[in-house]
Amino acid sequence: MVDDAISISVIDGEYFVFDIDAVKRLRNDHHIAGILVGTLPQVPQQSVFLGLPVQLMPEEAALLVQQGVARIIDESQSHEPILAIDPNDIDDATAGLKINEIESAGSESQGPLASYTTPAITTVDKLVLPDSSVNAIFETPRFHMYRYLHQNGYFISPGLRFGSHFLAYPGDPLRYHSHYLVRGVGYDEEFSLLDLVGSGRLGTGVKKAWMIGAHLPPDQQDKTTALRLPGAKVGEGRESSDEFVSFCVEWAGFG
Prior knowledge:
Number of strands: 10
CATH topology of the largest domain: MutS, DNA mismatch repair protein, domain I
Order of helices and strands: EEHEEHEHHHHHEEEHEE
CATH class of the largest domain: Alpha Beta
Distance between the termini: 46 Å
Largest sheet: 5 strands, mixed
Strand order of the largest sheet: 3-4-2-1-5
Number of helices: 8
Low-confidence stretches: 104-122, 225-241
Structural class: alpha+beta
Shape: globular
Strand content: 15-25%
CATH superfamily of the largest domain: tRNA intron endonuclease, N-terminal domain
Number of domains: 2
Radius of gyration: 23 Å
CATH architecture of the largest domain: 3-Layer(aba) Sandwich
Mean pLDDT: 80
C-alpha cells in the first residue's frame, strides 16, 4: 500500500471520502467524481448544492483498492472507545476528550481521565480493512462493466434515475452530458425482450444510447470478437481484449 493512499471510510456498508484533497485527486487523476452528499449544519434542508463527504459507488471503491490507489477504513472501529464510555461517567469522559484534543498527538494523557482519550491520527492504520473486504464486488457483472468503461476513459455515475446501472460520460460530468445508459449482465443471464425495447426507447428519449455488456467466461473468449481495448494487458486489473463484449442499442429515429 502506498503511503499517500486515499482513505475511503465505510459506514453502514456505504463508501465515503471526507478529504477535499483526496476528492481532487480522484477527479483529476482517476476520473472518478462520486456524488456530494453532505449538507451544511446551518442549512440542513439544502438540496441543490451539496458538500463533503463524497459518496462512492461500491464499484468505484473496489477499483481504487484493486489499483492500490485507496484503502478502506472501518469507521465503526474508530468510534468504539466513545461507545464504550460508561454513561454514569459522561462528564468526566467529556472533559477527557477535550483534554485529548488540546494535547499533541504524540503526548500521553495524564491524571484520572487518561482512559478517555480518543485514538490519535497515527493509529489510523489499525482501522484499515484488508483488501479482501471488497472481494465480493470484484466478480459481479456490474464491476466488470464499470471497470471496462473506466479503462476506456469514461466518467461514470449511478444510473438509477434512468433505470440503468450507470451513466457513462465521455469527460467530466461538469462539461459533458452522458452518452450511454449502461447495464452490466452475466454472460448467461437472461433478460426479457421488454427490457431491451423499453431501455432502448428510454435511451432514445433522453438522447442516449443504451449499452449492455458482459464479462466473457474463458471458454467463450476464443469464440467471440470483443471490442478491443487499446494497450490493454492481462493481469494488471484490466479487461483483456478478449475478456469483455458490449453492445449499444439505438431506437429508429435516434437523435
